[in-house]
Specification:
single chain; 3 helices; 185 residues; alpha+beta; 2 domains; 3-stranded antiparallel beta sheet; globular; 4-stranded mixed beta sheet; Nucleoside Triphosphate Pyrophosphohydrolase
């Protein structure tokens, strides 16, 4: 049985470009406590899967880690933007392709104890090149990686980005399911 939860106060203590931080005072039953919450609009994550069973990934510097990471394309949703539209936008901006087909794979909170960000993962296929449209502060290189190699990299530590690990392994699962279905036809 859960105790009734009451939010006693909620105050924004930091406003930034990417996220805000608020301090919530909560009463749960007889217990009162505070929680610092990082507010984020959410993200779109997209795996571009080409007909040769390679995926497009981006290598970019991530200052919080102090190194360059290999990741699947992703980005923060713009105000009022739906996740699917954010995925389409990021795909064209970062990779320079549009997709004939985009399907949702998963949506998950990356750290729900203090962060509101929900990541929405999509698989893009039937790809056509249009040319990159990077934002002014985006410096990245595109790397095409065979899906099976990317899955190996996701499990052996060469890919360290959580969203990329999840997205790649989900894509591999879908690819194997489709292969198995086609073999049984």
């Amino acid at each position: 049985m859960h105790n009734p939860l009451e939010i006693l106060s909620s105050d924004t203590i930091y406003k930034g470009k990417v996220f805000n931080v608020r301090l919530d005072k909560i009463r749960e039953g007889e217990i009162e406590y505070e929680r610092e919450i990082v507010e984020h609009r959410g993200s779109a994550v997209i795996v571009p899967l080409f007909s040769d069973v390679t995926i497009a990934m981006v290598r970019q510097y991530r200052h919080a880690t102090g190194k360059y990471l290999l990741e699947v394309p992703a980005g923060m949703l713009e105000a009022g933007e739906e996740p699917l539209e954010g995925a389409r936008r990021e795909l064209e901006e970062e990779i320079g392709v549009i997709a004939g087909k985009i399907e949702p794979l998963a949506a998950f909170y990356i750290s729900p104890g203090f962060l509101t960000e929900k990541m929405n993962v999509f698989l893009a296929t039937d790809l056509s090149e249009t040319g990159q449209r990077l934002e002014d502060d985006e410096l990245l290189t595109i790397e095409r990686v065979p899906l099976d190699e990317a899955a190996q990299m996701a499990t052996d530590g060469r890919i360290e980005d959580a969203k990329s690990i999840v997205a790649i392994l989900l894509t591999q699962k879908i690819a194997f399911q489709e292969l198995a279905t086609n073999l049984h036809k």
